[in-house]
Write the structure tokens for this entry.
Amino acid sequence: MARKPAIAAGSNMIPMAAFVIAVAVLYFARQILIPFALALLCAFLLSPAVKRLESWYIPRIAAIVLVMIAACGALGGLGWVVTDQLVQIINDLPEYRENIDHKMAAIRAPGSLTKLAKNVQDLGKELTTSPPSQPPVATPRKPARSARAATPVPLDANGPLKVEVIEPQPNALQSLRNFVGPLLGPLETAGIVIVFTLFMLIDREDLRNRLLSLIGQRQLHRTTKALDDAAQRVSRFLLMQFLVNTGFGTLVALGLYLIGVQSFILWGVMALFLRFLPYVGVTVAGLLPLVLALATTEGWRSPVLVLVLFLVLELVTGNFVEPMVYGAHTGLSSLAILAAVVFWTAIWGPAGLILSTPLTVCLSVLGRYSPHLQFLDVLLGDEPVLSMDALFYQRLLALDHHEALLVAENFLKENSLTSLYDQVILGALAMAEQDRHAGQMEPRREEFVLQSIREIVTELAETDPDARKSNRGRVLLEPEPAQRQEIRVFCFTAHDAADEIAASMIAQVAERAGFPALAFPFVESPAELIEGLAPQPGDLVCISSIPPLALTHARRMAEQIREALPQIPLVIGLWCYPTTSSRTLLALQETTNSTVVTSLAAAVTQFKATPVTP
Amino acid sequence: MIRKEGPVAIVALHGKVTLGEASESLRAVVEKLAGEGCQQVVLNLAGVPFIDSAGLGALALGFTLLKKAGGLLKLAEAPPRVQDALEMTRLTRLFPVYTSEKDAAASFANVV
């Protein structure tokens, strides 16, 4: 008996172990993976240009070489200009020495804040200093031979001997090594990235085919879709980010020009490129002109304006422009992007920062198309994880009528009332019925759910945008004029309260389609009621039933009606019924001489197709 | 609100008659009157601004219930919107709608 939990715990450990192994591989193989991932990103960026050149009948190799030369040239040129400007600014800095000294003096001037800081510092010192103790008796040591030879240094009796290490002047070779050494690593990575990118662009179809073959031909459809999706989302993301950053950089340059900061074009261009680094880039991009404004301008006006400019632009771009533009293009939630930045930077450093969003997009796509990795899509994606009907039902279960109504109203903004009923409310009713039949719903909650849905259905019927347009609130779309007055729809409840609400919904939808409708609660003898209503040729009956016992209840009522009224057109609505069991539905149609539908939209189509028999 | 004028029970309805409590209580009132043996019932709809398909269903159900018990249901003072709904569903052919409560009550005497 004790084995089952052990097995369950073991199966839970497998994904965790896989995750740990994956992170370890990413970390320890970063020397290979980083250039590969950067090359992939570059290939994504450059491949549209290569394809365009190929479409002009330029051979692939030539097109790739041209694009690579153009890209490297653009980057190199830009780097040259930026470096040149930076060097110029650094050379000019001594001229602003006086200005910088003034500002530093103003900062150091004793003010209330400075005093407070000093007091806190003193208090800290007192708290951390150990109480004075008797100094140990120092035994004078015999100085070493080297010390004896050197110039005598005045010594504190108990203090340590201060030693200054003076490095010898480097020779020419050492200077070159010191200068080139730190650049070798990035240059090496850049070289590998260029080579990888070249080969990826040359063999892109071959690489894709190999990947497809690796995953297996049985998964061909899914893999193709995943690859297309990933490529499309990453390309769109890069394009959108480039456009957003271009706008950002232009506004930065314009703002800095108006403020009067030197080299405003340089800062605009830097802002454009640095903003590709999430969160960190914009800080660096803002810091440089801020320091320059502090150094070169008198007073505090310009630095403050620079700070405000970057803050406002970043807040507007980050909170309004990017969510609007990227939301639809990357499919990642903002939280996922932030978490991705932290994760990839932690394991891959600055390269991880650049690659974080595209890599996370790929992971999210992987989760979307691989059932085993679906959790990735749920965690990283921005699509609602609960379907609309589940969300609506969940809010009702939480006894939150207001939010459930909001869900419905928001859905109605872009959908018809019929869609709302079909896709949201009937689904929620079916879930409520499932829970009730499974004994999982306490009576208080059940009553709340049903009452709320009743109120929402009644309320929405009156606030539907179409209803407002119509005369006196009753919408009659224009069907065949002959049908409009002739056919009435009698909507019957198959069994319980949920079925009754559904009957009211189909009656509302039928009215909007031009059919006068009556909705009835559950009655023992429906045929008797219909006969009492003096049905005329063409009038039809619709039975509403919601799973899980939809079929049983609907069949019973349909048989009663059919027995008494063999001619009346009969539509059986098994709302939300799984359409896979079509054999069962066909049997029901045959035995009751009726038409079975599973959605309100289909029911209305059926009403319209019903002939008006003389 | 139910009041009796001789053998006629006059029920004044107030508020929207829609799915849920309103249509359920209408049905319950008619059932109660039928159970008490009251065979002449007038529903005064002057206070009903709106009636939906469930409300119309409750009216029709009340009508058949009373008819089964040997009684008759009549309507009075329906506002235009309610009158439209009754006409569209052809319920006016089952129970006539009178312009005043008095006329509706008097019509029972004519029938008798």
